[in-house]
């Protein structure tokens, strides 16, 4: 690539270029800079003012305000409760550190699977010496999903309408599909505004719908849907304001859920589609199949499905 790639003027070319980069191991870094016209531009040459571009399709989901640890003080001591406001189960791990004058779960890791929209009592702590205060530091870790569930066989219909489109990066792609959360993801190059449909029925768990351009989240606008077998499908880089469903709503397969976009850390308009599950305090992508073979050499046209 000898000339700079301008994101706004060469959207179609950028998709093809991305395909080439993802088919082979990257032999040179990509740089990004703002040109004299204020346009974000990509190039394989390190120019003055340019910065290395690292494409990252990892999903940043802020659930800390929806998984809440509360302390209830009473005459006998303190009770720790946790509330899950999400529409999906959450695996939780609580550790008490810097413990002093505490009877209870000192220096132990407490583990639970918290159902959706539930609050439970974790532990009640009492002092050894009631004339002295208890001291401890709670450390809470959590992950979406229930690791006890087992994925069931399912072939996903193509999650878009229209076309023809091509896969620009497949599972294990060196460009951005090497991490555990996105190893089996697929990128499909398509124009902004392409209808995106639910490839499987489920409950909407998380939605990001207000991001413009690169924004603060590498995933851009996205929707996460929980399925009956505990797996979750995620649709990334969606157009701002296009997601039709709210958290907690049920979505049927074949139903339009959004429009494709170019938000987040994206080199061109495309849909990033991934299926994930909780493998034990962590989300990881899992292999999946579409109802027809998908690769970078074949053109695919999505259609409405009533499966």
Automatic annotation (TrEMBL):
Annotated ranges, domain M23ase beta-sheet core: 185-278
An annotated Gene Ontology molecular function: metalloendopeptidase activity
Region spans: Disordered: 162-181
Cited InterPro entries: Cell_wall_metabolism_enzyme (IPR050570), Dup_hybrid_motif (IPR011055), M23ase_b-sheet_dom (IPR016047)
CDD domains given in the database record: M23_peptidase
Pfam families (UniProt xref): Peptidase_M23
Domain of life: Bacteria
Protein known as: M23 family metallopeptidase
Originating organism: Entomomonas asaccharolytica
């Amino acid at each position: 690539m000898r000339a700079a790639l301008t994101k706004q003027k060469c959207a179609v070319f950028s998709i093809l270029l991305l395909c080439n980069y993802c088919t082979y191991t990257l032999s040179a870094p990509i740089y990004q800079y703002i040109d004299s016209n204020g346009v974000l531009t990509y190039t394989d040459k390190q120019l003055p003012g340019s910065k290395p571009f690292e494409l990252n399709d990892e999903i940043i989901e802020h659930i800390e305000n929806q998984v809440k640890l509360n302390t209830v003080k009473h005459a006998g001591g303190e009770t720790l409760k946790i509330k899950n406001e999400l529409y999906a189960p959450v695996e939780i791990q609580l550790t008490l550190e810097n413990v002093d004058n505490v009877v209870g779960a000192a220096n132990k890791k407490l583990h639970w699977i918290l159902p959706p929209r539930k609050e439970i009592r974790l532990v009640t702590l009492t002092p050894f010496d009631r004339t002295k205060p208890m001291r401890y530091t709670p450390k809470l870790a959590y992950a979406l999903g229930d690791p006890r569930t087992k994925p069931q066989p399912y072939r996903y219909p193509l999650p878009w309408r229209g076309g023809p489109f091509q896969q620009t990066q497949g599972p294990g792609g060196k460009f951005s599909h090497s991490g555990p959360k996105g190893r089996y993801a697929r990128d499909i190059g398509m124009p902004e505004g392409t209808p995106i449909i639910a490839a499987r029925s489920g409950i909407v768990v998380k939605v990001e719908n207000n991001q413009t351009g690169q924004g603060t989240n590498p995933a851009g606008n996205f929707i996460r849907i929980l399925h009956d077998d505990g797996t979750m499908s995620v649709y990334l880089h969606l157009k701002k304001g296009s997601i039709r469903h709210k958290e907690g709503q049920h979505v049927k397969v074949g139903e339009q859920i959004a429009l494709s976009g170019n938000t987040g850390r994206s080199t061109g308009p495309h849909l990033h589609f991934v299926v994930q599950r909780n493998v034990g305090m962590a989300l990881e992508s899992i292999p999946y199949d579409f109802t027809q073979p998908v690769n970078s050499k074949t053109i695919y046209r999505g259609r409405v499905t009533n499966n």
